Amino acid sequence: MRTKLVAGNWKLNGSREFNRALVDGILQGLDTSPAVEVMVCPPYVYLPETAAQLDGSPVMLGAQDVATEVAGAFTGEVSATMLRDVGCTHAIVGHSERRTLYGDTDVIVATKFAAAQAAGIVPVFCIGETLEERTSGLTMEVVSRQLEAVLDTAGPGAFADAVIAYEPVWAIGTGLTATPDQAQAVHAHVRRIIATADARIGAELQILYGGSVAGANAAELFAMEDIDGGLIGGASLDAAEFLAICAAAGLTN
Ligand code: PEP
After folding, report:
1. What does the DSSP assignment read for 20-42?
2. Residue 124: CB within 6 Å of ligand 1?
3. 172 lines ligand 1 (CB under 6 A)
4. 10 Å Cβ neighbour count for 46?
5. How many CA atoms lie within 13 A of 155 on its CB side?
6. Phi and psi dihedrals of 97, rounded to 5?
7. pTM for the full model?
8. Is ligand 1 within 6 A of the CB of residue 7?
9. Contact yes or no for 67/118 (Cβ under 8 A)
């Protein structure tokens, strides 16, 4: 039985005050012995103080991205070692906004995946198709290609310490959500690819769904066999909404 994981990606939002209140709200509403893993991913600059706020709680800390490099002349970048140093356990890699707005190719994403793991950071590896790709019937082909870019370089063993997030691009921040059956079909396909390479790792791999998840639709998505939680954008900026999603994943508040 895989543990469910609910991760909040705050993107470029908030302020010190907003984020402090948000973390407080989440911590106050959380069960003390959660059967669900919970994680928040604030902007880089707020990571150290969020780590301090989370100290002693079961809530994990993730970064929204990571550098391909460890150190050197890479202005503006933050390395996986640094993320580890300030208390992160996870880092998102390959988010569709990084892919489309900042030029993260499959190769760059695979390098970030490896850089995270080399520093002991668990990559939350995002894959997903655009609306055009879906309507052209290319969904499985696209996610297979994105997955194989990492599988080919890191090998199946790397997925023992990784999380995959299936995030159809057309569902991110749009209010459109994949139906449970649409999401399940892709999740099962992804798990099959990993399981073909390594049955145990495939069976144990957490595969999250992301794309307009909210308190109202989380339960039906999380009820699907291969959906092991969610990567939550907009709804993670509201403590009550985020907690409702955690509750839908099995947490009792
Ligand atoms: C995301 O940014 O990863 C995401 C899933 O956003 P939203 O929940 O707002 O669609």
Report:
1. HHHHHHHHHHS-SS-SSEEEEE-
2. no
3. yes
4. 19
5. 2
6. -70, -35
7. 0.97
8. no
9. no
Q: Is 201 within 8 Å of 156 (Cβ atoms)? A: yes
Q: How far is residue 141's CA from residue 247's CA, in Å, rounded to a whole number?
A: 33
pLDDT in tens, the chain (253 residues): 799 999 999 999 999 999 999 999 999 999 756 679 999 999 999 999 999 999 999 999 999 999 999 999 999 999 999 999 999 999 999 999 999 999 999 999 999 999 999 999 999 999 999 999 999 999 999 999 999 999 999 999 999 999 999 999 999 999 899 999 999 999 999 999 999 999 999 999 999 999 999 999 999 999 999 999 999 999 999 999 999 999 999 865 4
* Ligand 1 center to 126 CA (angstroms): 11
Annotated catalytic sites, by residue?
Answer: 95, 167
Query: Closest Cα to atom 1, ligand 1: which residue?
Result: 233
